[in-house]
Design a protein that fits this description.
The chain is of the alpha+beta class and about 190 residues long. The protein contains six helices and six strands; from the N terminus they run E-E-H-H-H-H-E-E-E-E-H-H. Helix 5 packs across helix 6. The longest helix has 19 residues.
Length: about 190
């Protein structure tokens, strides 16, 4: 369900007004609940800080942003190894687009009550032109910082893409990427 919330207009000239804020909320969210602008800024800031830490080669800082349950399933040593390997293979970040933010509060099927925010993402790195996925953030009912519950990432690095084109043609690469990117809600290739 999408709700459009008009921005507050506090004696601001008409030319300085912004478009209404669009908020995406799942149908199974707590009835009537709408996230505040402050919550939105907090989850966007957490997303930026998480990816900035990974891009800067500081997986320890990124690891601290994971929920305790996520850390229990992914030991620090493995997280460090995966982060370093992924960062080295990808090369420097060229672009990261946050495609959509979707909210839910206290959904019946969730592992715990609280606020959940899902951000669909597309990115390009020096060595990866095809990359998309999403992150799932969680905030406990009593508040506090958002913690990362899940990261989904799908990509085909450029070397592999060229091999596929050389061996099977561009159509096969496009077919493979279409299948992979189907796991990325709201993904569309960059223009």
């Amino acid at each position: 369900m999408k709700l459009a919330l008009a921005a507050l207009l506090l004696a601001v000239p008409a030319v300085a007004q912004t478009a209404p804020r669009t908020v995406n909320i799942t149908a199974d969210s707590a009835p009537g609940w709408v996230p505040s602008s402050e919550l939105e800024q907090a989850v966007l800031r957490a997303t930026r800080e998480f990816f900035d830490a990974l891009e800067a080669g500081d997986p320890a800082r990124a690891y601290q942003m994971l929920t305790p349950q996520h850390r229990a399933q992914l030991p620090l040593r493995i997280f460090f190894e995966q982060s370093s390997k992924t960062r080295d293979a990808a090369g420097p970040l060229r672009e990261r687009r946050l495609l959509q933010l979707t909210w839910t509060k206290d959904p019946a099927q969730a592992p715990a009550p609280g606020i959940y925010a899902v951000i669909d993402i597309a990115a390009r790195h020096a060595n990866i032109d095809r990359e998309c996925g999403y992150v799932v953030w969680y905030q406990r009912p009593e508040g506090g910082p958002f913690k990362l519950m899940r990261v989904e990432n799908n990509s085909i690095d450029n070397v592999t893409a060229e091999k596929i084109i050389g061996q099977k043609g561009r159509e096969e690469l496009d077919r493979m990427w279409t299948r992979l990117s189907a796991n990325c809600p709201d993904y569309a290739p960059a223009p």
